[in-house]
Amino acid sequence: MKGREQIIPFPTDKWKEQLGYKLKREIWSFFDNRIAVLFQYEYYNTDGHL
């Protein structure tokens, strides 16, 4: 994807199918200039399935 014109429709179209979107972030650890983070997301689709 290049440019704003192509980037903006991507999440917009994606979120039409992914309803109830949740993003979970959890810091696992950090030390000096390093950090470990867990990212999880969940959603249900238009059929109601997770």
Kindly report the oligomeric state of this protein: single chain
What is the domain tally? Answer: 1
Individual helix count:
2
Which class best fits the helix and strand makeup? alpha+beta
Strand content: over 45%
Low-confidence stretches: none
- Please provide the ordered H/E string of secondary-structure elements: HHEE
| CA-based shape | flat
Q: Sheet bearing the most strands, described?
A: 2 strands, antiparallel
Roughly how many Å is the radius of gyration? 16 Å
Helix content percent band: 25-40%
Strand order in the largest sheet: 1-2
Distance between the termini: 28 Å
Q: Let me know the average pLDDT.
A: 88
Record field, number of beta strands: 2
Notable traits:
50 residues
Outline of this structure?
It contains two helices and two strands. It is of the alpha+beta class.
Describe the fold and architecture.
This protein is α+β, with helices and mostly antiparallel strands and 50 residues long. It has one domain (3-44). Helices cover 28% and strands 48% of the residues. It has two helices and two strands, in the order ααββ. Strands 1-2 form a two-stranded antiparallel ribbon. The longest helix has 9 residues, at 9-17. It is flat and about 40 Å long.
